[in-house]
Amino acid sequence: MVFYHHLYRHANRWTVVNEMRQPFEVANLRALVRKVANNCAFCKVSKIIPSSPPIAPHSEKRLEPFVRLFTYVGVDYFGPVLIRAGRSQAKRWIALFTCLTIRAVHMEVVHSLSTDSCVMAVRRLICRRGSPAVFYSDNGTCFQGVNRQLQEEIAALNDDMAITFMNATTGWKFNPPADPHMGGVWERLVKSVKVAVGSALDTQRKPDDETLKTIIYEAEALVNSRPLTYIPLESADQESLIPNHFLLGSSTGNKLQPAAGVNGYGALRSSWKLAQFITGEFWRRWIREYLPVITRRCKWFENVKELEEGDLVLVVNGTARNQWIRGRAEKVFPGRDGRVRQALVGTSTGVLRRPAVKLAVLDVGDQCKPAEPSGDLGHQGLRGMKRPSHSLRRRRR
Question: Kind of pairing, strands 392-394 and 171-174?
Fold first, then answer.
C-alpha cells in the first residue's frame, strides 16, 4: 500500500484505492489508504499550513477610557506619492498616526524614509496633539532609529524631560517582523485613507506640496467623521459616535452639542463645564456602545497545539511553498494570556524572529518509506512489495 502511494506520486487517495482494489481484496481499504497518506512525510510537508492560535485579548491601552487623546498611538507609513517639484517629480510619504482608544487619525507628510524625517513628523504630532505615552509600530528602519534616539535622550537626561519627545516616559513597542495582522489597528485605517485620497491623486496632473497637504488634511477630516458604533435610525436627533466627537466636541465642530438623551445640561452655565460634561457623556457612550463591538472575535477560535522549543518548522515568507525556509524553534515567547505568539527560529541563514501564525510545525515522527519500485507502472510492480497479510488477498479471476 505504501508502494502504491509512492508509485502514483502521492496522488489523490481515490486513485490508490481504485488501483489496489483491482488485483486485491482489502478490508477497510479507504481507511488504510488514508492512514498511509497521513503518515507520509512528503505529504505532510507539501500540505502543511500554519496553525493560528486563538486571537489574543485586546491590550489595556485600547480599553482605557477617560484618557487624553493620542496617549497611545499606532504609527505607519504608506506611499510614495509623486508630486511636482519645479519641472521634475519628487516622492513624498504619508505618516499615519492613530489613537488606539478612539481610532482618530493624524497624518503628516514626510519627505523621505530617514530617521530625521520621522523624528520631525513625530515632533509635529506632539506639538499639536500632546506627548504620547507609548508608540506602536512595525519594524521599519526609520521607526527603529527614532526609538534609538528616544532611548539615548532618556538616558542622557537621567529621566528628566526629553528635548525632542517632551516626555521621559515615552516608550516605543514593535510588532514581530513579518506580522502585519498585529498592526491591524492602523493597517485598516491606511486602507481607508488610500480610498479617500485615491481619486484625488490618481490624475494625470501631479499635485505640488501645498496641494498634497490639503488633500491629506481633507482625508483626515473625512476618516475622522466615520461612525464607530451602530447608526440609530429611530430618531433624527440621535447620531452615531465618531472620532470628531472627541476631537471637535461635535460631529462637525461648529458648536458644542449635548449628546442625545442628556438632561440637565441647561443648568451648566459655564461653557467649560458644559464642554467637560459633554466630553464625559461621549466617553460613557464609548464604554456602552463601542467597547462591546471591539471585543468580538470573528476568527481563530479553536485551540491548537502550541509551538514548543525544538520543533521543526517551515517559515512562511509569502513566496512559493518550495521556497519556505526550514528551521528549528530555539526560543518561544508567550503572550499575556500564556499562549505562544512569537518564536526565535534558527535557520541555515541565521536566527529569525517570527510570529506563530507564520510558522508551520513539521510533524514527521511517523515517516513512511517508499518501497523499491520494480517493473513498469502496471500491476507487475507488485513484485517489489512485501507478502500481503491475511487482510490482503489477491482477487480471484
Answer: unpaired
Q: In sequence order, what DSSP letters do the residues of 202-244 get, joined into one string? A: SSSSPP-HHHHHHHHHHHHHHHTTS-SS----S-TT-----HH
- Provide the pLDDT for residue 163: 57
Residue 161 in this model has a pLDDT that exceeds 50:
no
pTM equals: 0.75
CA distance 351 to 327: 9
Grid cell locating 295 = 471585543
For 310: left if phi > 0, alpha if psi spans -120 to 50, otherwise beta; the answer is: left
3-state DSSP percent of the chain in helix, strand and coil, to 5: 40, 20, 45
- Count CB-CB contacts under 10 A for residue 240: 15
Q: Give pLDDT, residue 98.
A: 94
> pLDDT by residue (tens digit) across 241-278?
889 888 887 777 665 555 444 445 454 455 667 777 77
Q: What are the backbone angles phi and psi of residue 176, rounded to the nearest 5°? A: -60, 150
Residue found under cell 480471484: 396
Contacts 24+ apart (CB under 8 A), 392-396: 392/24, 392/25, 392/26, 393/24, 393/25, 394/23, 394/24, 394/25, 395/22, 395/23, 395/24, 395/25
The whole-number pLDDT of residue 220 equals 92
Q: Which residues have C-beta within 8 Å of that of residue 62, sequence separation ≥ 6?
A: 72, 100, 101, 185, 294
* More confident position, 234 or 124: 124
Q: Which helix (H) or strand (E) holds 84?
A: strand 72-85
How far is it, in rounded angstroms, from Cα 14 to Cα 381? 19
